[in-house]
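Dear Dr. H.,

I hope your travels went smoothly. While you were away I took the liberty of generating a structure for the chain from your last submission, since the lab meeting agenda had it listed for discussion. I wanted you to have the full record in hand beforehand rather than looking at slides cold. The sequence, exactly as received, is reproduced here:
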Amino acid sequence: MGDLPGWVDLVDPTEEQLRQHLPPGIAPTALEALLAPHVHDDEPRPRIDSHGNYVLGIMLLPVEVPAENHLYYQEIDFVATAQQLLTVSKTPPGEKPFDPKPAQEACRSQDEIGMFVYHLIDEIAEGFLDVVDALDDEIDEVEDLVPVSRAEQIGHRIRGLRHGMLGIRRTLSPTRDAVRKIVDNRVELEEGELFPQPVEIAFGSAFDKLLRASEGLDASRDALAGIRDYLQGKIANDQNEVMKRLTVIASLLLLPTFIVGLYGQNFHHIPELGWSFGYWWSWGWIVGTTIAQLAWFRRKHWI
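The corresponding predicted structure, in token form, is as follows:
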């Protein structure tokens, strides 16, 4: 639990622990969502909805682990009333749950509960900015590896980044829309006011951060597409280089093959066959034409 009065944080709670802090009249579907284990990636869909005497929020935060090229999601659910904010942090399989302490430390004990919710959402928005920055760093790293690494390895990294970015987009867009509902005063309690105007104005800052994260994600997607085009161009150039080398080898063997084929004809009256130096004569033509071709190719900058 958190130490801030009015803010209770639970990590992977049981139904009994949840009911101790939930407001009366909690909907069965809301209780089911709060108790559902975090065993998925970018699901459920983030949302913030009013349920009469409380507001239910389901949030997801992508977390990038650059050292492992790994992306996972933390689920943060909350139930806010006029008197209390209850957050439920769920532990992803093999990972760590969301830590609300930075958001709690930004709050003051005299703040309204709506401001507590703002600091929580603002911390999530900062997390989206951090993961977009981490993606940018990884994209820069992949771009530097294109000239020196195998195409299969780079292609695998690009596919992984693209898949991760699609997942982040599926999470970021509904999160931004949910925060916009608070800014537009479309989420509120039936009795009392959870988000007064100053809190709604503060939520505009969180919405702006989510908007910047969305724009940054679009820029990252464009940068990744550029790297993919760069990789395809490099593959085409490498193939051209291979074909050029094979063509040079085939061209160098063409004239010697002609010379050997000429003197390998089954005719009795070939003058060179009677020469004592006929063998070396044919070798002279082979070596001479090969050197001449090499000189010509180099002069044309083909090799």
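Two observations you may find useful: The first strand starts at residue 7 and ends at 11. The beta strands are 7-11, 47-50, 55-65, 70-80, 85-90.

With kind regards,
E. W.
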